[in-house]
Amino acid sequence: MLIKAGFDIAFGTNARTPMSALLSVHPSRNRDLQTRQSLVISPNVPSYNYVDAFGNTATRFALPAGGGSLHSEFIIADSGLPDTRAPDVPVHDVHELPADVLPFLLASRYCETDQLMQTAWWLFGGLTGRALIESIVDWVHNHITFGYQYARNTRTAAQGYQEGVGVCRDFAHLAVTMCRCMNIPARYCTGYLGDIGVPVCDAPMDFSAWFEVFVDGDWYTYDARHNMPRIGRIVMARGRDATDVAITTNFGNAWLTKFEVTTYEVVDEALRNAA
User: Please, which residues have CB within 8 angstroms of residue 154's CB and are 6 or more apart in sequence?
Assistant: First the structure.
């Protein structure tokens, strides 16, 4: 299947403002791109890409006083298959894990394993393997009530646990934290997730957050907000939590004036031929 995705984001500024953005498709999906994917900045200012510490493609630039806009659109091929469940094998002993996944067992800015360790073991201490992972996902899905009115960019996993409300990032942070407490390496992901293979939601499209767990030598995708394997997920960035994968970071005074995301399956034959 083919998916068309993109965004239009605009900022106001009152002075030249350096920024960085994680708005490119993750390098692991570059081979699936059917059209060129690039970040168009208006007004046209110098920019350059680099690979960050987590393997994501980041872009640096500076918006002039008065602000500017960011735009991208592309077509990408997708298998059309739902997320693959982790194999039903025992959780790795920590000393057997590869060194590069150990950071995803540790506490981070939004994932306070020290505050939720006792709770995690009380809730899930008798489980192992796939049952442990999917019980965590089920529990988080039922524990947090979703609502855009609950969005708060400073909410941590422990606060999400206490408040019981949030948006997709809060589901991901709490699930990541519970997995790490149970010695399952878990990393936070952000990207596109359109209403493909599910009823169309009448809310405005947004970027989505989910997470991945390391099991038996590979990473597997889970989504505590939707609590079901989904089709057409397009990852942009991965990290320890939302700190590492912020879609934009401004080093100065900038404010959001426009935010539109689109993601849908291509069914128009002309678009297919153009790809």
Answer: none
Structural tokens at position 83 = 């997320």
Angstrom distance (rounded) from CA 164 to CA 170? 9
3-state secondary structure of 125: coil
- Residues 11-41 pLDDT 10s: 999 999 999 999 999 999 999 999 999 999 9
Distance CA 52, CA 63 (A): 21
- Within 13 A of 229's CA, how many CA atoms are on the CB side? 8
pLDDT beneath 50: ranges in the chain: none
Give the 3-state DSSP-derived string for 1-54, with helices as H, strands as E and coil as C: CEEEEEEEEEEEECCCEEEEECCCCCHHHHHHECCCCCCEEECCCCEEEEECCC
- Note whether 191 and 236 are within 8 A (CB): yes
Residue 40 near residue 72 (C-beta atoms within 8 A): yes
pTM of the model: 0.95
Residue 222 — φ and ψ, nearest 5°?
-135, 155
Residue 182 CB-density burial (10 A; 0-12 exposed, 13-18 middle, 19+ buried):
buried
> Rounded to whole angstroms, how far apart are CA atoms 15 and 13?
6
Write the pLDDT tens digit of every residue in 256-271.
999 999 999 998 655 5
